[in-house]
Amino acid sequence: MTTKRALLVIDIQNDYFPGGRWELAGMDKAAANAARLIESARAAGDPVVHVRHEFQSADAPFFAPGSDGARIHPAVAPAEGETVVLKHYPNAFRETGLKDILDRDGITDLVICGAMSHMCVDAATRAAKDLGYACTVVHDACASRDLEFDGVRVPAAQAHAAFMGALGFAYATLATTDEFIAGA
Fold this sequence. Notes:
This protein is an alpha/beta fold. It has helices spanning 27-44, 98-104, 117-130, 156-170, 177-183; strands spanning 5-10, 48-53, 83-87, 109-115, 134-143, 147-149, 152-154, 173-175.
């Protein structure tokens, strides 16, 4: 079977950056690495699919419809002709045309980066694997934030590590940006 790869760039949007409404730890570094992945994918002729989240309510905590915060960050701006998928749920496949877009282009392998590690990256990776795609998550091109559960604060780095560890166990191959580009 012939494989064909695409890069899936998830929710690298203004609200996640310093000064945004839902700042993530390490978002600038993750976006810089995602930009390198985009450049590499474009050079290889691999499709780049951008996913952009908007909540459906104007009083959303972030990514409010039509807001500047919901726009894709300039560091990873889509090039003319690149696909942008609008989603309203953590899973980029839910109620979007993403699967049809990938299948139309014969995509078998997904390279995934973006935000948030513990939410939309996790949801999309698990869904993609369940749909039969081979997945690679480029973990240093993803970002998270501090979480809290039952009075326990989980620092962003630990939340990110826990979710990457879980994805790496059964859902995806994990790589750094440098490792992925060197092996591409």
